[in-house]
Amino acid sequence: MSEQKKIESTDLLPIQENGKTYWRSLEHIAQTEEFQEFVHREFPAGASELTDPVTRRSFLGLMGASFALAGLGTGCVRRPEEKIVPYGKRPEDLVPGLPQFYATTMVLGDEVVGLVVEAHEGRPTKVEGNPLHPGSLGGTSAIHQGAILSLYDPDRTVRVLHEGKESDFPSLDAAFNERLEALARQRGRGLLIVHEPSRSPSFHALLERVRRQYPEATIVSWDPVAHNGTTEGARIAFGKAVEPVYSVAQADTIVAVEADLLGSGPHSLRYSREWASRREPDSPEGMNRLWAFEAVFTPTGAAADHRFRIGAGEAGAFLRHLAAALEQRGLQLPAGIAQRGDFDAKVTDALAKELLERRRGRTLIVVGRHEPAEVQAIAFALNHALGNTDRTVRYSPAFQPVEGRPDAGIRLAAEKLTKGEVDTVILLGGNPAYDAPSDLNFGEALGKAKHRFHLTWAPNETSALCEWVIPETHFLEEWGDAVAIDGTFSLVQPLIRPIWYGRSKLEVLSHIAGRPRKGYDIVRENFLATRGGEELWQRVLHDGVLEGSARFVEVELDEAAVAQAASKVARPDRESLKVVFRVDSKVYDGRFANNGWLQEMPEPLTKLTWTNGALVSPATAKRLGLQNTQRVRVEVGGRSLELGVWIQPGQADDTVAIALGYGRTHAGRVGNGRGANAYALRTGDALWLASGARLTPLSGKELMPTTQSHGFMEGRPIVREASLTEYKADPEFAKKMVEHPPLIPLWPEHEWIGQQWGMAIDLNRCIGCNGCVVACQAENNIPIVGPEQVRMGRAMHWLRIDRYYASTNPADPTDLSEPEVVHQPVSCQQCEHAPCENVCPVAATVHSLEGGLNDMVYNRCIGTRYCANNCPYKVRRFNFLDFHQKAGLPKVRQLAFNPDVTVRTRGVMEKCTYCVQRINAARRDAKVAGLDRVPDGVITPACAQACPTEAIVFGDITDPASRVSKRKKEARNYELLGELNTQPRTSYLARVRNPNPELVS
User: Fold this and answer.
1) Which has the closest alpha carbon to 901: 128, 150, 67?
2) What would the mean pLDDT of 242-262 be, rounded to a whole number?
3) What span, in angstroms and rounded, lies between the C-alpha atoms of 960 and 958?
4) Crossing angle of helices 201-213/519-530, nearest 10°?
5) Which CATH architecture describes the domain 573-701?
């Protein structure tokens, strides 16, 4: 039932020919005065004078972090010692002005992703995916793209600190060696080592040496967002710790139960690519069908053909209910796991029928990694019964699995600290004083240790409590190795010598083990001893990954153990208000809170920037009398937290979802004070779900910057979609959704010279992950503007992803309970008849004959903003403030800049250029090679290169054999606002859903 008053169709909220009404926010659907004022404002109001406190105080902090004030002078551009070459005789492969590329690996929890990093004369400037790595396949996420900014973060740990004062490495080493010698005499008694879980073979080899050297030491690991439910569930189901690895491309039906398969977690980039490969409606293999059952909206739920709400904590009960429906239709299951529940029988019966009608081994059931082991075991059993084992799901030996409770290690550490049993604590990374379960009071316990050493790449709440703080290297500055969940081995290679002379975890651990060495020597020695010889080492150095190193094992289901585990699964009380803790897609567990690119990136569904919020459903908000952004107090287990509320369509009722990683106090100038710290509510017994909560409305509203109404294109059919059945009946449906008289050009057609560039974006493939948004920002030197400027509509992103909701209730097009979602990337459309070109008084925006682009001539622009006023796509960005050139910022900020892209200043308009610098580089290379044309596929804009689903295709539209030309010839292709006769070079392929026929109204 709709929780909003139903309104009639208006110019701003039209009902389209497919019977759906698309809307972007609660304010949009309610047509509030504030929303209509924002929409009808042609462009943001003018900026204040330079004396405005925003530009003098907070600006310096934000822009400093944005543009990498990572050191003093030029000493921070240094190459790794192992590879340094004097430039008295320049290496043959180094040409000044031309970038070099090196393969490396980024490890984030259980996610291992191979990368290729671009460097300009020793300075890393851009991250791309490594096509050879199975965890990447060439795609990247927003967090990977943001790695460059973290490398040049001015608030990194820049020097050794002792008792909060500057020190040096000789003093540190003297104190460290003194403690280690004393501890060695006691066989390690009184020593506590807390490290982040590592997927590095070299790290664990060193850790074993440390254990032998200090046999009575306590060594534990802690990661606040780690999940061991899958490996513990595998112990139940198969009797051994293994990790499931999915073959999504082989699955005709995918069922995601509280699982963000496409949006986060190990191999999510690969899974996204494989899922997207089956979204072609004309493919002989047929489209796949994705079902999602979840309490809180995820990118996977947004991409699903069917998404249904289930209560928080009900994944296990739902799987047992589905098992009963399957068993009723004849599927043989372990006795005792099937149990009917209070779920929509029509939905589960249709799903069960579909799962059994598909070819055996062509389905897939995935459960979120945060779900308990018992729930994981049920999912393993269902996949096994459906014949999916060794087809759509294979199992790889778990790498250094954690047994028992995920907080067991940090709990043991806190107990020993509290009891005074620890003399010396060494923390290798992490921030447990901030993110450990709140019932442990870890920060207070840490103060009871006499000696406290913390290796960290950025100051944080834990380092503030430590005696010694050791600068840690960024992964782009260090050597290392890693094993992905499928067993694939890859190398971590430095692109630059440590800017602040930091040390890696491997180097510190080797020091503890009594044999200090450089990271390169540690990794190489371990590789030669366990993997292969020198020739293989050189090949892996080049490729970044060891081909063929993935490893899978056979499993045998223990039906009795699964049945026993299933009997422990009970549905939580539906009357209780529950709090769901979520890993944030931007700041992760909080470690990236000081990264301005990620903070300013809109969250995929809420479109919030710079903060988190208490997400509630419209029904829950109505019951409690809440308004968007209203301050509330969330109480659970005797703990409380105050923050702003955000009403989220499609969320389960009586559920409060809060993203982790905010509310930092020692993050840096960008991250401090952003949002609220959800860890304060989190205990060891309720790491992901807490029941019995209470939500109390407070007075006042919270500052919650959002971009969901930016770039609004009023009352026009922007997104176009149909069901697969409708598409088969009328493949040209997208072109027929807008009727208009014959289009008559007002100006002569442009003359085309040489190759002409265009783009096609497939809405069937876009999952709204924002990887393209941050990739564009990194490639094109786009500044951060800060939360106040975002609220005023001045975000500078050249590429935005519009998120639209559509009701699934035919009787009420404004029903908020279970909406569908469509994502649409929008940047400059590179119009042939560009409205912006005709109004610029100084010809600062002009049409290029060779290439056909809508070019910006920055040094002509006088800032009239007529072009922005005349752009129907709302994609032009104006520098209201001097985001790059403010006085007081050292010149070393240029370290983060792409030298191939002009840096803009105040009063200048800017927009997407199709990455013209890459086009020009490809033209030059083709000319040097004696080619008349740039071959298809050579030029890839930053957005397309980052996209994990290959939703964006770019190329020469005059070449009928190019990929983009073939895309534009497809029946689904349409032009955004084509009825305006702008003739955009960017076109879209309409979305086609593949719903189950039995559930189509």
Assistant:
1) 67
2) 98
3) 6
4) 100
5) Beta Barrel (2.40)
